[in-house]
Amino acid sequence: MNKTKCQLFKAALIAMTMALAPAATAQQAAPRQAPALPGIIQLKSGAEVKGAIRWMPQARKYTISIRKGEQTLTQDIALADVAKVTVQKPERLDALIAAVKAGKGAQAAPHLEAIARQYAMLGWDEPATRWLAKAKLDSGDAAGALALCEAIVKVKPAAAYLGEIAPIYWAALRKTDKKAELTKLLGKAIANGGEEDSAAALIIRGDLLMDEKKPFDALKDGYLRTVLLYERCHEVQPEALYKAAKAFEALSKNADAQKMRDQLRKRYPKSEYAGKL
Q1: Over the stretch 125-141, which tens digit does the pLDDT of each residue have?
Q2: Category of 49 on φ-ψ map: left (φ > 0), alpha (ψ -120 to 50) or beta
Q3: What is the CATH number of the domain that holds 132?
């Protein structure tokens, strides 16, 4: 090969390498797309659309594939137009949540993370993220738990004070000393939320007051208020009873503390908090 041909060959090789490099980089960086899942999108207009649903995070929209005879039509639906998305519950979710409650969060965490990714913005990402964040809190990783919750709140701001994510988000804010932000969110939950949201917020308020060594106020404005006013909120009652007993103990009111423990054993014998007595 003479000198001129050699130079032309080198130039062609460099050009080809430069042309291929961006494509390879883009291919490597492209995130793996979650599979479409069968379900229903309920629009704010009241209409419903059934099909295979996929969330598109960059565009903040859903795409839904709809079978029409022999054809498959694809429709884009903006997040702002959606009232609710319903898909089938992941089979293993309940067992994974039970594992976290039983102190086996490390084993459950990878599977919960996979569910949260696969069901992003399809409803089941929130409970999966909640219990994944709980596992991280239990292991001492409050910053990791906070980051998980903030990823949900970034897309759905109301999740910071309403619904599935809110209680664990508050717990992570408390553990990371973000008291001012937490106090504001608790006020929003109590003012705007349903009974479950308000009851959970009161418990966290009690925790903050206990942090300040104010057990009487923790009972009055938190735990005991939850026990007495939100008796139908069975999800939070075991924690409220358990923590009310602790606050009574801090006040040396042992008889009242025992009443709380007795109620907890009688009404919620299989709960996580009854197991701590």
Answers
A1: 999 999 999 999 999 99
A2: beta
A3: 1.25.40.10
